[in-house]
From TrEMBL:
ADP-alpha-D-glucose binds at K15. It comes from Paraflavitalea soli. This is Glycogen synthase. InterPro entries: Glyco_trans_1 (IPR001296), GS/SS (IPR011835), Starch_synth_cat_dom (IPR013534). One of its GO terms (molecular function) is alpha-1,4-glucan glucosyltransferase (UDP-glucose donor) activity. It catalyses: [(1->4)-alpha-D-glucosyl](n) + ADP-alpha-D-glucose = [(1->4)-alpha-D-glucosyl](n+1) + ADP + H(+). Pathway: Glycan biosynthesis; glycogen biosynthesis. Its EC number is 2.4.1.21. Residues 3-231 form the Starch synthase catalytic domain. NCBIfam families: glgA (TIGR02095). Keywords: Glycogen biosynthesis, Glycosyltransferase, Transferase.
Length: 472
């Protein structure tokens, strides 16, 4: 089978979050399973672009409403990612450094999707499946099926994976001219609540829809930012498949970002060295448990609860632990986290921004990773932390519920709580502080977590079954 992934992110080319990790790994493991998987994404101006060799494979001329533009498709020459990688260049729209966050994101991603379909239409051969990810590429199933100019390729099957249903790419009907002329009888497929809703259109039009964990699929039926009824209606074609992690990238024995690498045989010494490095760098106290947070500082991740939970812990549990936060997002959350810094007695620090290398050192050097998410479609951080022997402290939701068992339960290894509230987080922090001093239990938990299998092999088989079902 040949599968073309269309995505806004792909690690290490461009990554803003977990979507990049998944699209950087899944195709590689599909190829290893004997299929042909390729990725096409926008040609942002990132380091990866300048560091590698490319061939031009296609040049096209097309339009977004009244605006006509040229686009170029290039392919990475040496297959260094383990799959064919194509980038689409559209001057004026995609030639930016960041993935998202521009006022014209709707134009950027709609033009990207049109360019991709124009290219596929003119390609010498067609893939069996076009696999799109999140709302940035979710108009493709509609356009492929109903825009007149893609009639010759309308038979290609489509799969949509939802990594995050909070963001849906809403467009006003005044922007409908962006979509290449289509069968007007089908306008209802684009619509949801009086707007064009690309994610909803993708759910309606894709042959199969997947979410990134089984629990998240269930949750979407009663909590999906307005799409609840649609998920209930379309449940027959939806599948929940837990993400894997790229165990080649995320391996404490070989991780290039780590100065002190370690494996199962020297977990304690390895983690101690990494913790020492973090404590030196961020003026923290090595002897106290180190509890960290890595991620986008947004409501979904429960990041707004962190400042109060940290303050309450330091005030009420006592200064028996350290905190280190890495992330960026809502300015008010960033400011509230910065405001704790002057109160630190060598037990709190924060790095505002995105830092891939630091995240790896943190997974290795922390004792605990806090994830108080309100919504967590799958969550990769908890799986990375376990692979690095760091105990996850998660709210029971979505993929967190599917991957972490409380250490108080049979076979358990993590710390779990039910509510995204300051009280529950503080209680979990207290439990972590207590657990930290049970050295033998911690050693045994670390060993157990590092041996858990979160590799892609299992999930890849489930994707293959979904593709086969889509092809019929
Ligand atoms: N400031 C920072 N510096 C360095 N690295 C940072 C960082 N902030 C985040 N990261 C990294 O970005 C990734 C975040 O992945 P997640 O899966 O936790 O969340 P995200 O919400 O982006 O993904 C969505 O898609 C993924 C993939 O399907 C789902 O797992 C998830 O639940 C869903 O919300 C991790 O690799 C993390 O280390």
């Amino acid at each position: 089978m040949e599968i073309l992934h269309v995505s806004a992110e792909c690690y290490p080319v461009a990554k803003a979050g977990g979507l990049g990790d998944v699209v950087g790994a899944l195709p590689k493991y599909l190829n290893e399973a004997g299929h042909i998987a390729k990725v096409v994404m926008p040609m942002y101006r990132t380091k990866f672009l300048y560091a590698n060799q490319w061939d031009v494979v296609h040049k096209g001329y097309t339009n977004l409403g009244n605006w006509w533009f040229e686009f170029t498709v290039i392919r990475e020459r040496d297959n260094i990612l383990g799959f064919d990688l194509y980038l689409v260049d559209i001057n004026g729209l995609l030639d930016r450094e960041k993935v998202y966050g521009y006022a014209d994101d709707t134009e950027r991603f709609t033009a990207f999707q049109i360019a991709v379909l124009d290219w596929v239409k003119d390609w010498q051969h067609t893939p069996d499946i076009i696999h799109v990810h999140d709302h940035h590429t979710a108009l493709i199933p509609f356009m492929l099926r109903h825009s007149y100019k893609y009639r010759s390729i309308a038979g290609i099957r489509t799969v949509l994976t939802i990594h995050n249903a909070q963001y849906q790419g809403w467009m006003g009907w005044d922007q409908s001219i962006f979509i290449p002329p289509y069968d007007m009888w089908q306008w209802g497929l684009l619509e949801w609540n009086k707007n064009i809703n690309p994610l909803a259109a993708g759910i309606k039009c894709a042959d199969k829809v997947t979410t990134v964990s089984p629990s998240y699929l269930e949750e979407l039926k009663y909590m999906s930012n307005g799409l609840e009824a649609l998920f209930e209606y379309e449940k027959g074609k939806c599948y929940g498949i837990l993400n894997g992690i790229d165990v080649k990238v995320w391996d404490p024995e070989t991780d290039d970002y780590l100065v002190h690498r370690y494996g199962l045989s020297d977990i304690e010494a390895g983690k101690a060295k990494n913790k020492m490095q973090l404590c030196d760098q961020f003026s923290l106290d090595f002897d106290k448990p180190l509890i960290g947070f890595i991620g986008r500082l947004v409501g979904e991740k429960g990041a707004d609860l962190l400042p109060q939970a940290i303050r309450d812990s330091l005030n009420h549990i006592g200064r028996r632990m350290n905190f280190l936060v890495l992330g960026s997002g809502f300015p008010e959350v960033e400011a509230a986290l910065q405001a704790i810094k002057p109160l630190s007695q060598y037990d709190y620090n924060v790095y505002i921004g995105y830092h891939e290398g630091l995240s790896h050192t943190m997974y290795a050097g922390m004792d605990f990773l806090l994830m108080p998410s309100r919504v967590e479609p799958c969550g990769l951080n908890q799986m990375y932390s376990m692979r690095y022997g760091t105990v996850p402290m998660v709210r029971r939701t979505g993929g967190l519920k599917d991957t972490v068992i409380d250490y108080g339960d049979p076979g358990g290894y993590g710390i779990c709580y039910d509510n995204a509230s300051v009280g529950d987080i503080t209680q979990a922090i207290w439990r972590a502080t207590e657990l930290y001093h049970q050295k033998d239990t911690v050693k045994q938990i670390r060993k157990q977590m590092m041996q858990l299998d979160f590799s892609w092999e299992n999930s890849v088989q489930q994707y293959i079954e979904v593709y086969q079902a889509a092809i019929g």
